[in-house]
Amino acid sequence: SADSADSAGSANSADSELSAVQKWKDTTQGYMSTPVVLDGHAYLHLRNQRLTCFDIASGAQRWTTRERFGKYMSLIRQKDLILALDERGILYLWRATPEKFDLIDQRKVSDSPTWAHVAVSGGEIFIRELKAISAFRWSAPGAPPSAPAHSL
Asked: Which of 16, 81, 82, 126 stands the most exposed, by the fewest C-beta atoms within 10 Å?
């Protein structure tokens, strides 16, 4: 749960132009993932392999999935869609909404471990596998990827 920041949460220095004051703190443990932020909410992969949504202003958790996903997961966002790749080679597409977890689709895109961050450029998704990199073309806006466009 979110706690109010106290003076120990301040990172200000008279010699620095950088100022940071802690607004809230939650003991939920994110794991090997950077949160994705949209419209005042942060979406995060957790150490317990679940996904969660936080209200940024208050620190309140809006939802946490019951389902567990991969051990590691990279997240990227385009508009209100989040694309997530776990280390098992499963690519997930979900809608970023604070009301509920809204999984649109998922696809197995690699039989090799995929520990690197997923990348998107234009209509292509790049997946770094253990011994290769693959490019996938979106089949339609907002749809999951189709077969590899090419593999290096």
From this structure: 16
| 30: nearest Cα among 73, 83, 67 | 73
Give Cβ neighbours of residue 141 (< 8 Å, ≥ 6 apart).
Answer: none
Q: What is the pLDDT of residues 34-59, one digit of tens each?
A: 899 999 999 999 999 999 999 999 99
User: How does the average pLDDT of the chain come out, rounded?
Assistant: 85
Q: What are phi and psi of 112, to 5 degrees?
A: -100, 160
